[in-house]
Amino acid sequence: MPPGHQGAGGGVGMPRPSEQPGTLAKVCFVLISLTFAALGVLTLLTEYVPERSTRFGMASALFGTDAQGMGVVSLLLAGVPLLALLRNKRQAAVAGTVLVLALLTFIFTWIFG
User: Fold this and answer.
1) Any idea of the CA torsion for 17, 18, 19, 23, to the nearest 10 degrees?
2) For strand 57-59 and strand 48-49, is the pairing parallel, antiparallel, or unpaired?
3) pTM of the complete model beyond 0.85
4) 41 falls in which pLDDT band (50, 70, 90)?
5) Using an 8 Å Cβ cutoff, are 61 and 46 in contact?
6) CB-based contacts of 50: which residues, under 8 Å, 6+ apart?
7) What are the strands, taking DSSP E only, across the chain?
8) 3 pLDDT band (50/70/90 cuts)?
């Protein structure tokens, strides 16, 4: 092998990927999060979710407490894109675990409560 060559696993001049997302990615994560949060708040205030198309056909509109539950789920899911903005993987793992536990707790108490 020529000097400075490390084989198929990677070259000497190969740039390492950064640990943190770039500015454009951060802006996209925040905009996605704000969109989910706005939909959740709108759903909570109006108590209405319009009909939506799924791969199984049209799903009926939701009213009242069903729509409010959907709004809370949207608000909880709004936190998922923000996990990429945390300082390290450990913080993201802890925050993601808390977020998933809160989401699952709400969903199961909403369904069976």
Assistant:
1) -130
2) unpaired
3) no
4) very high
5) no
6) 61
7) 48-49, 52-54, 57-59, 62-63
8) low
